[in-house]
Every structure is written in C-alpha cells, then in structure tokens.
Amino acid sequence: MNLENRKRELAKEFSPLLEKTTKTSKIWIGFLIAVILVGVYAFFLQLFKGHIVTGMRDNVVWGIYIINFIFFVCLSYSGAFISGILHFFKTPWKNSISRIVEIITVLSLIIGPIFILLCIGRLDRLHYLFLYPRIQSPITWDIIAIMTDLIGCFIYLFLTFIPDFAILRDNSENAPKWRQKVYKFLAIGYQDTPEQREKLHKVTRTMSAMVIALAIVAYSVLAWIFSLTLQPGWNSSIFAPYFIVAGLYSGVGVIIIAMYLIRKYYNLEHYIRKVHFIGAGIILLVISLLFGYFTFSEYFSRWFSHKIQDANLLNTLFTRYFWMFIFANYIGVLVPIVILFFKKFRTIKSITFAAVIAVVGLWFNKYLIIVPTLETPYLPIQDTRPEFIHYTATWVEWALSFAGVAAFILFFILIMKLVPIIPMSGIIDNERDQKKNKKVYKKIVTE
Amino acid sequence: MENNKTEKGGTNRRKFLKLGLMSSVTAVAGASLISNLAIQDEEVTDSGEKMRLLTPDGKIVEVDASNINKYPEALITPEESRKGIPNRKFVMVIDLAKCKNARKCVEGCQKAHDLDYNEEFMKVQLIQDNPEASPYWLPKPCFHCDEPPCVTVCPTGATFKREDNIVLIDNDRCIGCKFCVTSCPYSARQFNWGHKDKFDDTSQPYSPETSVPAAEGTVMKCDFCPDMLRQGKLPHCAQSCPMGVIYFGDKNEDIVTNGEETVRFSQLIKDRGGYRHLEHLGTKPNVYYLPAVNRQFPLERGFNVDEDIIERYKDVPYVQDLKKQGKI
C-alpha cells in the first residue's frame, strides 16, 4: 500500500532525530542540566533560609519570579492561541510549525506556575489553597483558570500527537523495547481508519477552539491579579487585553526563535522554509503594532491625566528606569516594526533578530509594570530601612530564572527525541490534500 | 496540660462575653473585669465555691468559682479571634496637631509585639500635602478598613475582618503569597522574609490577637491590640504616646480616649474637621485624622531622633531643603 510505504519512509526519515544523539547536543544537554542543578541548589537555599535570600523586601514584594511567571504563562497562552487558530482555520503552512507551537504551549504552562510557587513564603502550606479556598480572591480564580488551561492544553496536545504515535508504533521494529511500549501505550489503539481519522479531526478542531477560549480566560485572570488592586500603575481597565496582546507578541517571538534554532541544528531546511518565517514575521508585525498601540495608550493616559501617583510613577520610570523604559517600550517595539515592515529586510536572520528583540523587550516591559509600581505606592515610602526601598534581584533569583529557561530548552530537546518535531501525519494529510486538489484540477481541466 | 486548660478558657470566653456586663458577689462590675473571667460548660471539679454574675439583661447566673479564669492564662485561639468582641466598633483618632515624631508609639508597639528595631507596625511619615502647605508628621497604623482590599484578595482567608472593625491576620493560615501586601494602598503590611530566633519562642502560645510569635514567610501588621482591648486597656501605641496624640474608642458608644481625656467621637470629628486618609479610594478606614492646625510643637522637634531615623526621610523635599540650609 502506498500510504503505508509513505509512512514507513517518513518514520525512517525522522528516526535519526529521535534515536541519534550528536556530540554537540550531548554537550548542550549537559550544560542545561548543570544550569538546572544550580537552580535546584538556589531553590533549596531559598526553601531553607527563607525569602531573605532574594532581593524582594517589604515594598517590592514581588520580583522577577512573578515576571517570569507572567512571561511563561504568556508563552503558553499565545502558543495555545496560535496553534488553535492554525488548526481551526486549517492554515495551509501550519504543518511545519504546529508541533513546535504545541510543545512551547505545554512546556511553558508547566514551567510558568513553578515561578509563582517561588513567590510563596510558605510552600509547606500550599494545600491551604484547597483546604480554605476563598472564591473572592483573584488568586483562586487564577488557580482554577490555569489548572483548567493546563488540562485543556494537555488533551489538545495529546490529540495532535496520536496519529504520529500510531505511525511510530507501526514503524519502529528496530527501536528499543521500552520505546515500542511507550508508543503503543500512547497511540491508544489508533489505526488510522477513515472513521477514526474523521473523529480525531473533529475532536481536535473542537479542542482547538476550546483552547483559544481557555487561554483568553486564563490570561485575563492573570492580568486581573494586578489590575484589580488599587496600585497606581496596575489599576487599569485595559490590562487584560494588553496582557493578551503582549502575550501574543512574546509568543510569536519565541516561536520564530525556536523555528530558527530547530531548522539550523536539525537540518530541517526542507520543512521549515522562508515562507514560514515570513508568515510568522507578518503576524509579529501586526502584533507589534497592536502592542505598541496598547503600551502607548496605557502610558499616554497616565501622563495626560497626571494624577499625582501616576505622575510619581512616570517620574520613576523616566529617571531610575530610563534606559530600560527606552529599550522595552521604544526599541522593543520599533525595531521589529521597521525590520518586518520593509520587504527587503525580511530575511530569516533579520526576522529572528526582530523576534529576539521583541521577546527581550517584552520581558523588560513586564519588569517595568511590576517593580517600579511597587516602588511608588500611594503613600510615599518613608520611615523604612534604606535597603527596603529599591529592588535588585539576587543571584538566587537569577539562578532560578535561568534554570527555568534551561528546563524549557531541555524538555524541548527531550520531547523532540520522543516524537518528530514535524508531524508526520500532517505531511501525509498534506500530500493527500494535494492529490485531491490535483484530481479536482484535472477534472476541471478535462471537463 | 496547662495549655489545654487555657484553651478551654479561651473557647468559652466568647460565650462569657455575651453575658456582657457582670459582677460577681464580691467583685464590682467593670469593663476590664469582663475579660478576666470565663465560664466553662464542661464539668470541672467543683471547688464548692459559687460566684454569682449579673448579665446585661439583668439576670443573675451562678457559676462555680473554678470555672472562672484569670486573663493572662486565657488564650484567644485563631478560631475564636475571627469573631471579634461583641457590640464593639473600634475606631482610632490621631490628632496630627500634637504629634512631634517622638516615636514612643513606634517603640511601645515594637516592644509589645516583640518586633525588631527595624520592624514597625506603626510608621511615622512626613507628609507635605502641597508645596505651599506646611509639612506634618503622620503616624500611620493599619487603617482597619471597612472595605479592606487585603481581605478581599486573600486566597485562604488568613486575613479577615471582624465584627468589631478589626482586621487581623492568622499567621497559622497564611501561605505567604504577599497579594495582600500589594493590594494595601497604605503599605501597612510587613513580611517576615527570613527566620529569626524569636519565632521559636513558645513561652506564649500564638494568637492572632497578639501577633506573637510571628512566623517566617507570613505577613504581619498592626492589629489594634485586641488583647489589650479585652482587658479594657488602650492599644500600646495610644498608651505610650506622651502627647496624647492617639485616641482610641468605640464608635457604638461614641467615645474615644487618649488616656488623659475622654471625648465624644462624633463631636471630636465634627469640631476638629476629622478626615480619613485617601478617602477617595473607597476603603473606608477606621482611623481618623484631625488636621495639623494650631500645632503644639514646631515640626523640627521631630528631627530630635537618631541619625539613621532622620536618614529615612531623606527623599522628602522639605528635608532636603533643611539639609541644604544646614538645619539638620
């Protein structure tokens, strides 16, 4: 059978990706594990010595942990959003990048919440959240929303993996036993019959729509944690949509970076092409315009109405945080816009560069939303010890942040060892569609 | 064993308080006495000695003397501290005209709550409302709001609003998420960032009403000293202030006192133009301020403190001016 042969061919084509580990990737894995171990050490230090080892103090009680939390949840949310849209609208070029997007979604949704746990002073009492829940608290909403989102994303991701697991199950005679067993278990008896295929497509489509809705809810609730307080820099009605646009901005950025790295190190130039970069680049352009618009509206209304607390906040932003503000909200928006706007600048490298600027800029944008606000509360910070006034992250916080990034990359590499990063079933679907189209085309021509 | 006994006393005090004003055969009725006594339902060995108490509705009840507990032994458990003292609406009035940053309130509070030199439930701020206005010292406790943002956002109910207006923290319940710290517009809350030896002190069982001992990784703040209120005494800050700046009392009775004079709360607010800080936020604080008019002391008297305390005000434009002129 032609289809079976093609499946075998593809499984063979991708098997080196799954089974062989090159020297460079071994070194990379070792390095990432080392970074994670430093993070683990920092974590235990914080666990035993308390939050005194961080830079957080009475005024700035949330630091880069919560920024990382927002950032990773941002990623997952936008991953879900983009992947949902790709699936739902059956975007023609979705196949090559859909799996990258899905993996980003789930990994960041696992790593993000770890950072919120790091903000909690008494991890030993975490179960109190369920023992004594108060539904009035936005934190409770957030827990419900993120857990629902996590489960939804897992189901969705699994659905998109099933056909590939089935192909791998049928075509991995030479693989070690445990691998065969894992594939058999994960394929849950999928045989790729037309009815099964039809059913799976339907369920995946429904889930893709659900995932978009879940992501919007989860991320709005996250924004509300800030905007529902009375703090001058946070109490803003546009925070929920602003966070959603910002999330998409960094999400698309990270997807482009991941596409670039995977293409380069796994020699997948055949599957991830320039057209994908340009497609993603144009999405990034649209979102960067939106993001810039939201950022401008947010700060412009504060500046124009200049309530005393808002004026104080802006004053802090434009003195102590001047360069960070310029980088995050000017360079971080304008450079991607310029690169992506002009056709001749749109090369794979420059698009990736724009994405890097966007992602780093967005991290600092979040820093500027969290830290300076906490440094300029309603009542001026007075009669407090000097080291409590300003925030600087300590090595413990940085170590844990980098460990989070390292864990993200490491898990990414490991998942790519389990399933091909390009969905084989998607390639087959594509080819089938093309054939159909050709037939239809021939029909039209002959008629 | 002893702990057990005191807890029993604690759980029953509330019932006892419901009896309200009481007098034994031998003792005289008085607010402080109320809290010195407690009844227990459960059978304790009879001492044979009976005491008769008068309830607010005029009934006389007879209880065994062994059921009567003395105050310092009695512990208000976290569970019981959620209820509040019945029929009270506590309120504080701070007379800014009398404050000269003597910091006795800060010190008294620190001593009573076993706080370090650098930890303050009560902070004294130097506020200048506008460039023309003359600056004044503003003692800032927790405002015990009627619409407390900290209580709304708490995910576990570790911080709560009681019937008697007081907002308390149960640090046995607190998970240390710090959301309450960020949601308080008055920066009234502190966090225990690291471990300290004093947290291990078990000589006094923990009660949210005393906030002692504090615990690592949890939040703490001014508690209006309910333990003192139960004894019919003023909070530590009001007691320690040599100027009588801080009035404390009950809105239901419409009376506040600073220990020297007792005045009608409503009259005081009316006559002296009392206001609440940042009223526009809608938090409805229970701490009122009397404006700093007809001052009793020049502001500069407030700089008669340690060098490192003066340093804490270095960002205030007025202080920077004074420094330029070489006055401090």
Automatic annotation (TrEMBL), chain A:
Membrane-crossing segments per the record: 27-48, 60-88, 100-123, 143-162, 207-227, 239-263, 275-296, 321-342, 351-370, 395-415
Membrane topology, from the record: Multi-pass membrane protein
Superkingdom, taxonomy of origin: Bacteria
Localization per Swiss-Prot or TrEMBL: Cell membrane
A cellular-component GO term for this protein: plasma membrane
InterPro entries: NrfD-like (IPR005614)
Family: Belongs to the NrfD family.
Protein name: Prokaryotic molybdopterin-containing oxidoreductase family, membrane subunit
Biological classification of the source: Bacteria, Pseudomonadati, Bacteroidota, Flavobacteriia, Flavobacteriales
TrEMBL record, chain B:
Alphabetized UniProt keyword annotations: 4Fe-4S, Electron transport, Iron, Iron-sulfur, Metal-binding, Repeat, Transport
Protein name in UniProt: Phenylacetyl-CoA:acceptor oxidoreductase PadC subunit
Gene Ontology MF annotations: 4 iron, 4 sulfur cluster binding; metal ion binding
SUPFAM superfamilies (UniProt xref): 4Fe-4S ferredoxins
Record domain 4Fe-4S ferredoxin-type: where: 133-164, 165-194
Organism: Lutibacter flavus
Gene3D superfamilies per UniProt: 3.30.70.20
